[in-house]
Amino acid sequence: MQENLKDRIQEQQEYVDKVNKINLGKNLKYIVLTMGCQLNENDSEKISGMIEEMGYTRTDKIEEADLIAFNTCCVRENAEDRLFGKLGEVKKYKEEKGTIIAIGGCMMQEKHMVEKLKKSYPFFDIVFGPHTLYKFPEDVYNTLTTRKRIEDILDIDGEIIEGLPIRRDDKIKASVAIMNGCNNFCTYCIVPYVRGRERSRKAEDIIKEIEGLAKQGYKEITLLGQNVNSYMRVEREKGEDVGQIDSFAKLLRKVNEIPGIERIRFISPHPKDFTDDVIEAIRDCDKVCKIIHLPLQSGSSKVLKDMNRKYTKEQYLQLVDKMKNKIPNVAFSTDIIVGFPGETEEDFEDTLDVVEKVCFEQVFMFIYSRRVGTPADKMENQVPEEIKHERFNRLKELVESQIELNNKKFVGTKQKVLVEGKSKTNENMLTGRTDTNKVVNFEGPDELIGKMVDLKIASEHMWYLKGEI
Ligand code: 5AD
Ligand code: SF4
């Protein structure tokens, strides 16, 4: 199986060489437009890596591109709408100069969406899914030589593909996928249907990748997966030989030992799998940031049951308390969905109650979006749009008042900040982040970029803090 996989990746290298020959001397440009989560961004870095090997150079101007690759998302309807908007915009480039339009990502695993594209946007050249991403060079070669539309989508679960080229967007922070897919089937979520079952990468491959990143000067690593704290669980249950690092806690401890890496983050864990060994590893590992993203989704035990989340409001709060007791100065961020089918005013108040009790550093708030093929889409008691929006705004108000309170606590304290670069809004300022992911802007020399500095927090603003060396 592994050998077979190696052969297939080798075969792609041959397509890379062939496309390179066709493109030689043409000075072609590309752009990748990403619509989804950090896993999608990580996939986009791989798509960019493959495209650059084929002889294209990056442009930020969409009108300049000879190859436009979309990496789509289908978690919520607004991500889909953004794709359709952009496709409407690129049609003219296709007509004027034959730009290659490739559409990949999670949305392409949905048959009804591919049908919609064919009907309403028939000018695209390639569609490909997350499971066939590694074959992108072959797809580009086929479209260049046949000028036929290529549909390269696999319905079965993809394997873990190692060794793809990658063109990273950042020089200080890097994300590393440790697992893919999801076995949880939360009733609102489309991910298990489009990303397939859980599969973990071998620890040795992950460690090798991170050691390589450390050598290149990367300082911060985010470990990625739909359910990171069930790393290797499926493999363990199947009795596969997975080596010594067979759990997320062990992986964290191992990554913590890699010289050169200064910060480790991870997203997303599932509350139901947050075992004590993981909590202890977070406590013991000095490089693991003490902010934990712990998706709540809802504060109502009834809604959580309907969502198939497998924990209650009380269990979530107990877990938070346990972590607060075991990990000094721990902070939390979360994801919340408002307006899940059947959510009553009382249920929503339970969500507000949890938000008040935990006092999150950051809350990603979502209005429930119906996803075709998921159990929640078939539930009869859908919440009317106005009520969803009204609840969303109430939650937002509470969250913003908490952020303000939290920010005030920072003023006058000393914070370790990893300097990421120049501030986007003010060329004279540098910008970085605290351990708890707060943005800090400050004046300082460019040599500090990529370094960890101690800053005194001078003042607070809604979305950032101002610091002094
Ligand atoms: N509607 C709204 N939000 C959703 N999420 C996942 N599916 C949906 C949906 N159908 C949110 C969850 C998840 C985050 C990545 O996206 O909060 O944690
Ligand atoms: Fe979706 Fe739930 Fe899996 Fe997260 S854990 S990807 S919300 S099904």
Structure description:
This protein is an alpha/beta fold. It has 3 domains: 2-152, Rossmann fold (3-Layer(aba) Sandwich), CATH 3.40.50.12160; 173-409, tm_1862 like domain (pyruvate-formate lyase- activating enzyme); 414-468, OB fold (Dihydrolipoamide Acetyltransferase, E2P). It has helices at 2-23, 38-53, 77-97, 111-120, 136-146, 191-195, 203-215, 233-237, 248-256, 276-284, 301-306, 313-326, 345-358, 385-410; strands at residues 29-34, 57-58, 67-72, 100-105, 126-128, 150-152, 173-177, 179-180, 199-200, 220-224, 263-267, 291-293, 331-338, 362-367, 414-422, 430-434, 439-442, 452-460, 465-468. A 6-stranded parallel β-sheet has the order 2-1-3-4-5-6, with helices on both faces. Strand 15 and strand 16 (430-434) form a beta hairpin. The termini are far apart.
- Poorly predicted tracts of residues: none
* Helical coverage, percent range: 25-40%
Number of helices: 14
**Based on helices, strands and strand pairing, what is the structural class?**
alpha/beta
- What is the beta-strand fraction? 15-25%
Strand order of the largest sheet: 2-1-3-4-5-6
Q: Judging by the overall fold, what is the CATH architecture of the largest domain?
A: Alpha-Beta Horseshoe
CATH class of the largest domain: Alpha Beta
User: How many β strands by DSSP?
Assistant: 19
Overall outline: globular
Q: The CATH topology of the largest domain is what?
A: pyruvate-formate lyase- activating enzyme
Could you say which small molecules are bound to this protein?
A: 5'-deoxyadenosine, iron/sulfur cluster
Quick one: CATH superfamily of the largest domain?
A: tm_1862 like domain
Q: Distance N terminus to C terminus?
A: 55 Å
Number of domains: 3
The gyration radius over C-alpha positions equals 23 Å
Main sheet makeup: 6 strands, parallel
Averaged pLDDT, please?
95
